[in-house]
Amino acid sequence: MTTLSPAVRRTIAASLALAACCTTSPALASAQEPLAKTDSGTALDRYYRQPLHWGSCVKGPTDTTGRDLDTAGVQCADVTVPLDYTAPRGRTITVAVSRLKATDTRRRIGSILLNNGGPGGPAVQSPPDARKAMKEVGARYDIIGFDPRFVGRSTPLDCGWPVGVSWLSAGAGRASFDHQVVLQKSLADKCRATGAAVLPYVSTRNTARDMDVIRGTLGERKVSYLGYSYGTYLGTVYTQLFPGRTDRVVLDGAISPGDYGPRLLQGSEGVNEMALSGWAVWAARRHDTYGLGRTRAQVLATIARVVTASARGPLTVGVGAETFRLDDSQVPVLLFTGLGDDSERTRASLAEQMSVLDKAAAGSAPTALSPEFAAGLRYMLHGGGEPSGIQLAVLCGDRAAPRDPEVYWRDIERSRAAHPLFGPLTNNIGPCAFWDRPREEPTRIRHGAKALIVAATGDPRTPYKGSVELHDHLPGSRLLTLEGANRHALYGRYGNACVDDKVNSYLATGKLPTKDQTCVKRVG
User: What contacts 20, CB < 8 A, 6 or more positions away?
Assistant: First the structure.
């Protein structure tokens, strides 16, 4: 049996993070968040004033991540926050934080908080990678990672799902969709059964409030912020709840606040088809390795054949304990996951997977899978022993989804005509259709905020238009565009020197470019 390494888990989770993505007290939903200064005499003072006990990041004898953080000079602590910010004297939870202190203390700028996306992505492990991306300017920051509430090392939530991924395609016909309705309702019911006491408080707005408590415990008047993917929405919400408390803000792979919610991926079919076409050209040039076809059209025909075969009956791949069966609700998910990045390594991984599935569709005897592919399938299909449900809990807790299955079926059928592969995936029903309604309304953009928004024109996860729309929503922001890349999340991850240098210049000086900027993908 292969084990799922933290790196593989993070890759799969990030690729599927946008798979899915309201009422409470009117004052909380609409009013600006109280300042909660330490001299304000509010009930939140004890959270903002709490001392942090920084120490080792190691949680136990098998905690290799903690040992790596200790070796890198990172310290860890837990921040206590209220479960419900309207009842700060009630139940509390903890949020795990990590800190890589500035070494250039004479020119120290301040603290920068990190979020890797999701929802549900941890970041306690991220300060060393962030410092590497930040190059020389990294030494001037205290780099702060944190696992959002109910994620990772924070107070946990686990819905106990039998699958790692709830987001699936509706498949070829009504019977497959009806099966999805039953499955997605069962997943929502499992979350409610295991986490009913906390689900109303799993939301982006509460995570943003936790971020401000972290700011207070660090003794910072303002904090800088680096967020990827969903983290761009979290960062935007923070600027709206706590205007004036941010210094330098980088939002990479941005989501338009109007698009954010359980059906976030609706409308992304075209950009994913473009990414699939680009990958097919790449695979055709490597037919001798993967056997998928010698032209783009032949590769795309192979993919269509695989999906059609999986609709007739599940395809069996792997051997022994690593045997898996995939139908047409799951095969499109593998394709979608592999198209989030046009790097050589990711394209090769997708080609390997499709080659395996093509052989299965042709009736060839299964063979052993690569460890990474087997681990990914184990997580996707069976959960791999990982906590489940937090991503959907945030999305469902932020914005209500349509509750009538027929709404989804009509959208699937309309989209299927033009987008037969991805339409049934991006329009399918999910657990949020069966979730309790959110306690708060979605955050409205009422305050301008200075931010550098980073985006690729061919981003298959958060399409480029979302970054353009967020730029329009935030007066004073600047948009840094990378042309020619089918890639989600750029700064410090994609290897484009133009993007990295411009972001680091902003982090160093605090000065946004005088106008929007453009970089170009490096050929080759």
Answer: 166, 167, 262, 264, 391, 392, 395, 396, 430, 431, 432
Residue 304: DSSP 8-state: H
- State the pLDDT confidence band at 21, using cuts at 50, 70 and 90: very low
Count of CB atoms situated within 10 Å of the CB of 135 = 14
Residue 523's pLDDT band (cuts 50, 70, 90) = low
For residue 372, give the H/E element and its range: helix 371-382
Rounded Cα distance between 169 and 463, Å, is 20
Q: How far is CA 293 from CA 3, 226, 272, 301, 425, in A?
A: 32, 41, 20, 8, 25
What's the CA gap between 3 and 371, in Å, rounded? 8
pLDDT of residue 524: 54
Helix (H) or strand (E) run with residue 478 in it = strand 478-483
> Which of helix, strand or coil describes residue 341?
strand
Which residue in 260, 192, 165, 318 sits closest to 463, CA to CA?
Answer: 260
CA 56 – CA 71 distance, rounded (Å): 10
Long-range contacts of 499-505 (CB under 8 A, 24+ apart): 499/454, 500/133, 500/135, 502/452, 503/250, 503/452, 503/454, 504/134, 504/135, 504/136, 504/137
Cα separation values, 440 from 20, 250, 399, 447, Å: 19, 26, 8, 19
The pLDDT score that the predictor gives to residue 384 is 81
Mean pLDDT of 478-486: 97
What whole-number percentage of the chain has pLDDT above 90? 90
In the chain, the N- to C-terminal Cα span, in Å, equals 37
Q: What is the pLDDT of residue 22?
A: 30
| Helical segments of 256-370, H only | 269-284, 287-290, 296-312, 331-338, 344-361
Rounded Cα–Cα distance for residues 136 and 150 (Å): 33
d(CA 494, CA 210): 30
Mean per-residue pLDDT, 284-304: 98
Neighbours of 296 (CB within 10 A): 18
**pTM (global) more than 0.85:** yes
Bridge partner list, 92: 82
Q: DSSP strand E in 139-245: where?
A: 141-146, 223-228
What Cα–Cα distance (Å) separates residue 241 from each residue in 98, 111, 212, 392?
24, 19, 9, 23
